[in-house]
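Case study: SH2 domain-containing protein.
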Amino acid sequence: MLSLAVLAPAFTQTLSSPALTAPVPLPRISVGPRPIITPQEAQNGASKATSEERTSLSSIAAAQNTSAAQDGAYTVRPSSGPRGTQPFTLAVLLHGRVFNIPIRRLADGRHYALGREGRNHEELFSSVAAMVQHYTQHPLPLLDRQSGSRQLTCLLFPTKP
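Here is what the predicted structure looks like once written out:
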């Protein structure tokens, strides 16, 4: 008969132990160059998605066979640039395109806002989780820079980054 150590060397406790758990894999995060943002893009809070970013949520959907390829699929991922005031990015899928919106931590350190600085009206949130919860119930405005159209969607299907 094989011992537990032979079958699962990562386990450090016996089967009778109440705290028997497998190691949790850490997510892989790729950090690439940050896209150049024009003044108009900075003003409206949207950034241009690269072809890799456009397909990221679709690739996740295909790999996981989930609803991530549907409008409203979203993920919150670490920002690819300096993470001081923009620690995260909200990626939202709508009509086959991924919209990447920076999540800013305000100077007070207690609030978060979507988009770039300099907007007249912005909603403030006490946490990123509160922001996501809000936009699961209220439409999030997304600006298509190519056509200039403004579209709305709720955050419906969480995906992994």
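For the exam, be able to explain this: The first strand starts at residue 73 and ends at 78.
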